[in-house]
Design goal:
heterodimer, A: 194 residues, mainly alpha, 7 helices, 79% helix, B: 95 residues, Arc Repressor Mutant, subunit A, 4 helices, elongated
């Protein structure tokens, strides 16, 4: 068999194996669905509270963050034990999102302590970065478009009242996280192996 | 025209497949290589050992969920050999 391996066959084999390996990135739809739903619910809770004059003191955001962090940690640990392969793209995506969460926490805590209003527009614009880059790294167009949507709606939200700012946040979560996450989940169930 | 000699370690279907997979990922475990190459466990083990012997790959043995797990990654020597091999076959193909 090996003596008959021609240069054409060698090249074809190399291309085929590299092509297969490139499709073996970690499952990540869970995180987009989880955080998309939690952050949408937190914003809905905030809008309802504001509409009915109830002070929610940010409990919705706090609860969403804690539930999301715990669920992400449990899922991440479980998946970590199952993974067969680690690519450079996996590592870049992981550290990109860890860096994003740290940036978000620093911004949220800093703004909260200093008494600034919640910088929703800035956070949406910031969210566009890891979403867009992740989409590019895994070559997944819905996530790339989701990242662009975060940037556009985040910018628009500086020019609208708080109610519309909240609505834009929900729209960006649905189209930037939840829908791409659902499509990605279908693809992962059908194609991915890692 | 003189053609560059092909590296006989790499000029083997299964060893070349293993190397190609490991070039594309940072590290892959035994089951990943088994699934992607479609080889038998025995043959895969033998070829992994050969690649390790010549220093083209690094093999780490660990435990994953209480089961032994072999994780392979390409070494700089292996990467260089792979690049030379690709250049050589491109030479044969006139690319």
């Amino acid at each position: 068999m090996d003596a008959n391996l021609t240069p054409e066959q060698s090249l074809k084999l190399i291309e085929s194996m590299i092509g297969q390996a490139k499709r073996s990135f970690h499952r990540m739809s869970f995180y987009f669905l989880l955080w998309g739903v939690l952050l949408t619910l937190a914003m809905v809770a905030q809008l309802f509270s504001a509409q009915f004059g109830i002070s929610d003191r940010g409990y919705g955001w706090g609860a969403a963050s804690i539930v999301g962090a715990v669920a992400s940690a449990i899922y991440g640990a479980r998946e970590g034990r199952r993974e067969q392969v680690e690519t450079m793209a996996d590592r870049v995506v992981m550290w990109l999102w860890i860096g994003f969460v740290i940036t978000l926490l620093a911004t949220g805590i800093g703004a909260g302590v200093a008494g600034y209003s919640t910088p929703v527009g800035s956070i949406m614009i910031l969210t566009g970065l890891p979403t867009f880059v992740t989409g590019q790294l895994i070559r997944f167009k819905p996530l790339i478009l989701g990242g662009v949507l975060f940037w556009v709606l985040g910018t628009v939200s500086f020019f609208v009242d708080p109610l519309w700012m909240g609505i834009l946040h929900i729209v960006s979560m649905v189209f930037g996280y939840i829908i791409p996450g659902s499509i990605l989940k279908q693809q992962e169930n059908g194609l991915r192996t890692a | 025209m003189a053609f560059a000699p092909l590296d006989q370690v790499l000029h083997n279907q299964l060893r070349l497949a293993i190397m190609s997979l490991l070039v594309a990922v940072e590290e892959g475990d035994f089951n990943f290589l088994l699934e992607k190459t479609g080889a038998t466990r025995g043959n895969l083990s033998v070829q992994i050992s050969k690649l390790k012997e010549v220093g083209y790959i690094e093999v780490k043995k660990a435990f994953k969920e209480n089961y032994p797990n072999t994780v392979c990654s390409i070494t700089p020597k292996g990467l260089s050999a792979f690049e030379h091999y690709v250049q050589a076959i491109k030479g044969y193909l006139g690319q």
